Amino acid sequence: MHKALDLARKASGLTSPNPLVGAVVVADDKIVGSGFHPQAGEPHAEIFALREAGDRARDADLYVTLEPCNHQGRTPPCTEAIIKAGIRRVFSGTLDPNPQVAGRGIERLKQAGILVESGLLETECCQLNEFWNKFITTRIPFVTLKSAASLDGRIATRTGHSQWITNEKSRHYVHKLRAAHDAILIGIGTLLKDNPRLTARIPGEKPRNPYRIIVDSMLRTPLDSKVFGPDGRERVLLATKQHDEKKIAPYRNLVLDILTIPSNSLGQLDLAELMKVLGAREITSVLIEGGSEINGSALDNKIIDKICFFYAPILVGGRGSLGMISGHGAETIDHALPIKNITIHNFDDDICIEGYLK
Questions:
Q1: Is 130 considered catalytic here?
Q2: Which domains does the chain have, with CATH numbers?
Q3: How many CB atoms lie under 10 A from the CB of residue 353?
Q4: 69-109 confidence digits (pLDDT tens)
Q5: Catalytic-labelled residue, pool 42, 46, 293, 331
């Protein structure tokens, strides 16, 4: 199953709106076939593994990170291919939360006389598809809040200077995060200050660039912003509260779409409503890379599933320096949001803390 997990990760960022899946066929304690799902519309991992195994699949064991599907989607059901190949036992990492599957794949295999065991390396297999697990059951994207700060929690000095707080290895990891997510979201403040491209740049690789989402309530985004790069028309979404067509019109040829989103009870652009709109577009995951204002808005709107906070071994200080999260925030410590299942990574002297809010 470890091998199947490693195979699945090869397609990180490429399979959306499908899950990441890896599969391995084992006969006489030897791997005779393996595969992973490369992208939506392509054969599933089990099919690639069975093809490679050929006749050796008969009476063999199949290890797959996710319950095999038993329905006709973009591709035929994997259960029937497994049965036809003569597989004797199937080890599944986790049940598929997709309502179209949800145990029916395992049930079909058992009906055909195949021995099935589910839950092998279940925690790892669930984490592999944390984006998919939320999206397929709620139709709302999984949201990761990423921020980088000094040890005293400042993301910029009192003069607004912030590049670079973290080291090169930390920034390389951020580009991997970008490539893994379907979309990157920033607020107008970050765009005006940094004028970022918001692309995924990994040396030696050509990762898929995610959608870039700009939250700009009053449409102040400069028309020559770097985010409107060569592929801007296909990859940029502009979220605004504006209804004035005169203000909207100049952006229509620069972006994929302009999303008019209402205000919430705090007068902010309603990020929870924006997530529903993005989910309707089959955007399964969003990485927020904004400043303290959009971070605070995300917290106030209760849309954050996971945090990824980088800390550099420096102290910034200063009354006017910027903290990581502003917004309305908690009134008392009792109302503060707990972070669970924390993991810590080291990037030379930098520290990265990841954890979950939900």
A1: no
A2: 1-130 (3.40.140.10), 139-356 (3.40.430.10)
A3: 14
A4: 887 767 778 999 999 999 999 999 999 898 888 889 999 99
A5: 46
